[in-house]
Amino acid sequence: IFIVALSFAYVSKTLCGTYMKSAITEIERRFYLSSSVGGLIDGSFEMGNLLFLAVVSHFGARLHRPRLIGMGCFLMAIGSAVTGLPHFFMGRYKYDSVIQGSLNKTVSISPLLHFATLTLDCVKEPGSSLWIYVLLGNALRGIGETPVTPLGISYIDDFAKAENSAFYISCLQTIMLLGPMFGFLLGSMCAKLYVDIGFVIVDSVTITPQDARWVGAWWLGFFVSSAILVLAGVPFWFLPRYLPKQGEEGKDNSNVDQDNKEQPVLPNTHSVNLADTAKGFLPSLKKRMCTPAYLLLLCGIVLKFNSFIGLLTFKAKYMEQQFGQSASRANFLIGKNPSKCPDPACGCCGNILGWFVNEKIQVKAVAGAQLSFITSFTAFLLLLLHSGTKCDNVPVAGLTVSYNV
């Protein structure tokens, strides 16, 4: 039951995270923000996560871990709702009527339309400062995410068989890959809807999703993901603090939490334990950071995510501007088209391979690190092939060619 609940929580949190990335373009247009500010808004999730992750991981292992995960899911739901809330405090979206959207559904967006829209931004009024609440809501979602992964993995390690733990974790990582796919598909669906849907007559809107001035219902997906996160957090409130070790259920049930009936806790016991835990926080952190293998692994993960997150955040926007796709179409291609988003299948194979290597072949840690290095380096070499793949820029008078052409 815990594995199923945690899998649903993984899918929910990754769905909300990828939806945020799919809505970055819509948020920038709605609040008239630059790409740098859009990147700051998206990065606020990692900021909130970084501030509390180490503390929650250290202290949470001594507390009721399932309930902390449930609280984290509810906090993520609140943060997601706060992110979409500014829409209801802003006026209706007013787009410029200088450029008439004359494109039909079969014609992609002209780069000239993008360029002309950018020039109009110079005379637009400054956007609303309510984007601050979008940033704060995303940061709050990052804080709520802190107990889900570390406490969930430690809960599995403590009560599952050693030979089953890696299999359960690989299943979690595999199921989690469904979240990005559904997140981008949700972003594609919301991008087709007009931003003020339900507040204005849609037939009176003279622009289409293919128009560069179009802003989709970016706020709607945050409330959908908020409801999903609330549902994901409910099961954890009914799971026990302790479980009997897998395979030893009939031998010893003394670890099962039965509302603390067998071992009542004195009022000052928790404070003493938390005080001792706080004293051991810095020595424990120093010990981990002084371990060469752990430090090298940490640096590798930082470098990997440094490139991956930047690619994932602005990939949809790049497809819009470089290939003339609408926001809805770009998100759809990333989320569903296997040629654009092969990660779920590859991630599934990688997780199963990692479990097989660790549990069946039982390779040593050094051999596992060597295998990881070989696969990562091979992936890097294959990515270099992308540098030779490009499209010629469409001629735009006054921008790429002279007016006399």
Q: What can you tell me about this protein's structure?
A:
64% of the residues lie in helices and 0% in strands. With 405 residues, the chain is an all-alpha fold. The chain has a domain at 1-93 and 128-246 and 280-338: Up-down Bundle (Growth Hormone, Chain: A), CATH 1.20.1250. Helix 1 (2-22) packs across helix 9. The longest helix has 32 residues, at 292-323. It is globular and about 80 Å long. The protein starts with a helix and ends in a 22-residue tail after the last helix. The model is unreliable at 99-125, 253-272 and 338-342 (pLDDT under 50).
Overview in brief:
The chain is mainly alpha-helical.
Classification by helices and strands: mainly alpha
Task: List unreliable stretches of 5+ residues.
Answer: 99-125, 253-272, 338-342
Q: What name does CATH use for the topology of the domain at 1-93 and 128-246 and 280-338?
A: Growth Hormone, Chain: A
CATH superfamily of the domain at 1-93 and 128-246 and 280-338: MFS general substrate transporter like domains
Quote the distance from N terminus to C terminus.
68 Å
Helix content: 55-70%
How would you classify the quaternary structure? single chain
Organism: Sinocyclocheilus anshuiensis
Membrane topology: Multi-pass membrane protein
Main location: membrane
Subcellular location: Cell membrane; Membrane
Task: Pick out its properties.
405 residues; globular; mainly alpha; Growth Hormone, Chain: A
SSE topology sketch:
Elements: H1 2-22, H2 24-31, H3 35-60, H4 65-84, H5 111-120, H6 131-145, H7 148-159, H8 162-176, H9 178-192, H10 218-233, H11 269-279, H12 281-289, H13 292-323, H14 327-336, H15 343-361, H16 365-383
Helix pairs in contact: 1-4, 1-7, 1-8, 1-9, 1-10, 2-3, 3-6, 4-6, 4-7, 4-10, 8-15, 9-10, 9-14, 13-14
Transmembrane segments: 32-56, 68-89, 166-186, 216-239, 293-314, 365-385
Domain Major facilitator superfamily (MFS) profile: 1-405
Biased composition (Basic and acidic residues): 249-262
